[in-house]
Amino acid sequence: MAKLRIIFPQSIGVVEVELTGKNPKTLQALKSAAPFESRVNLWGEEIYFSTPARVAQEVAQDVVDVGDVAYWPPGRALCIFFGPTPVSRGSEIRPASPVNVIGKVIGDTERLKKVKDGEVVKVEFVE
Which intervals hold domain Cyclophilin TM1367-like (predicted)? Predict the structure, then answer.
């Protein structure tokens, strides 16, 4: 099965993402756009960065789990969630607006806290 590889060359290296079939149009748009580079933005305990993909909401979620990787349609961005955001309530993890979840980080999400705002990020798919 294919995986998404997100590379942070200036901090933590490779993060692999196990893909789900929940949002197939979103996944296909991202695969078609890859490989691509962007710059990291941080928002609470969320990493997000722009993508060349343009997709509408599919099966969008208001609340996500630690390690979820999702596409945010209004910002055309890929998001990695590893804790609460500024709009979270209690212990929930809440995106700025609904997102299309495409996968989950494989392994430890704690290391995502070392990623710095503005650093380069590379995205590719691997079989």
Answer: 3-124
Name the pLDDT band for 127 (thresholds 50, 70, 90): confident
The answer to pTM > 0.85 is yes
Domain chopping of the chain, boundaries: 3-126
Please tell me what DSSP assigns to residue 85: -
Distance CA 127, CA 117 (A): 29
* Helix/strand/coil for 112: helix
Say yes or no to pLDDT of 94 above 70: yes
**Which residues are 64's β-sheet partners?**
93
Architecture of the domain spanning 3-126: Beta Barrel (2.40)
Please report the DSSP string for 5-60 in residue order: EEEETTTTEEEEEEE-SS-HHHHHHHHHH-SEEEE-EE-SSEEEEE-S-----SSE
